Amino acid sequence: MPYDKLFIGGVWRAPSTGNRIEVVSPHSEAPVARVAAAGPADVTAAVEAARTAFDSGPWPRTDPADRVEALRRLAALYGERRADMAELITAEIGAPISFAHRAQVALPWMVMKAFCDLAETYPWREARPGLYGSDIHIRREPVGVVTAIVPWNMPQFLIVTKLIPALLAGCTVVLKPAPEAPLDALLLAELIDEAGLPPGVVNILPGDGAAGQALVSHPGVDKVSFTGSTAAGKAVAAACAGDLRKVSLELGGKSAAIVLDDADAASVAAGVRSASLSNSGQICNALTRILVPESRASEFTQALAAEMDSLVVGNPADTATQVGPLVAQRQQKRVLDYIERGVADGARIVTGGTGMPAGLDRGWYVKPTLFDNADNAMAIAREEIFGPVLTVISYSDTADAIRIANDSDYGLAGSVWTADDERGLAVAGEIRTGTFGVNQGYTMDPFAPFGGVKASGYGRELGREGLDGYIETKSIAVAAR
């Protein structure tokens, strides 16, 4: 791939500066690739290309059915390169290859096709009678030039949930992948080029935080779609506020798994492990607070510890690996610092802890770690750790569990585990989050909207609501004759 170039205006062009991003393997700590980094002039060029493509190009004026056809063509090309995409993601962020195939690549591919299905039945135009005798015509039109900024943890999934609905709506896009994960985005640029989308409709700029800041504040951008930390999201919202630029934010989480007293311990442990520790716990909707009834706290804790102890930690390129390294040394240090903080605050390590996992002498690894004897006021229960660390908190009754679950700055996801689905749905209705699962972690179903409340952001991705986010609704009244 042309690692030394940027994809702007439908062509691969040299960057304006000699700056490079070094991609380093989280497993071997060795360099993987050096990628061109966008400078201020490249940001300007990309926004201008997107602006021209929107203001005078064919894409926003193309029939929605033709846009669907073009993106189905892209999806077909994507399907042919899934193995290559998975290997790149494993190399750059350390995601276990089995998880990369299943979730990092297959899921985005499914989302591409699902959005195309949604677009085929979307009410682009609608007529309704008006109160005063006028005919009312509703037109749903593209919002304009979109800046999409994504983090490194689920790079293709987070790109696709922004890029595909924006394109189906008729928008043009400037995409900035995270500096830790530019390789998969560059492969996607190749596929977009091969699919024959008009020049300037998609522009892809690997870059640092300065490039992101320039993009979100650029006057040529109509909407910003951002996924990342809550702190960064606040800065993005502030940058957009001055120009009344539209913005959607998918931010952090500290989700609770409420285990009711009738739940099966083994099923809960297996489900929570999958929902919490995939991608080494580096997922925003991970269930990291495990709320268990006092009467069965030991049973649930032991079952979860046994599941965590059974996990295979190691080389992400090995298909047997279930937990790989964290993305960067700074992330490893952050997680280990939280583990030490948990002990200092009085929580007990049931399994895991600091130190390298057995059999590993390099790489940015952290042992899957489980705490108990914790309360909801501790840092490990309140702050997003973004690693393989879970905290068990006991509660007295269901009302207490609901109170603890809601006692959080975040509101992204959550779950309840019970033998009675109706009981589970009743609890789900009491939890203030954007998404929720009953007897499962929240599944990223392409037809279900995803997003948070409180410090987890606003706006929705996936589902019809994900397409709505890139639409302006226009009403036209025609006087009665």
Automatic annotation (TrEMBL):
<feature type="domain" description="Aldehyde dehydrogenase">
    <location>
        <begin position="12"/>
        <end position="476"/>
    </location>
</feature>
<keyword id="KW-0560">Oxidoreductase</keyword>
<protein>
    <recommendedName>
        <fullName>aldehyde dehydrogenase (NAD(+))</fullName>
        <ecNumber>1.2.1.3</ecNumber>
    </recommendedName>
</protein>
<dbReference type="InterPro" id="IPR016160">
    <property type="entry name" value="Ald_DH_CS_CYS"/>
</dbReference>
<dbReference type="Pfam" id="PF00171">
    <property type="entry name" value="Aldedh"/>
</dbReference>
<dbReference type="InterPro" id="IPR016161">
    <property type="entry name" value="Ald_DH/histidinol_DH"/>
</dbReference>
<dbReference type="InterPro" id="IPR016163">
    <property type="entry name" value="Ald_DH_C"/>
</dbReference>
<dbReference type="GO" id="GO:0004029">
    <property type="term" value="F:aldehyde dehydrogenase (NAD+) activity"/>
</dbReference>
<dbReference type="InterPro" id="IPR015590">
    <property type="entry name" value="Aldehyde_DH_dom"/>
</dbReference>
<dbReference type="InterPro" id="IPR016162">
    <property type="entry name" value="Ald_DH_N"/>
</dbReference>
<comment type="similarity">
    <text>Belongs to the aldehyde dehydrogenase family.</text>
</comment>
<feature type="active site">
    <location>
        <position position="250"/>
    </location>
</feature>
<dbReference type="InterPro" id="IPR029510">
    <property type="entry name" value="Ald_DH_CS_GLU"/>
</dbReference>
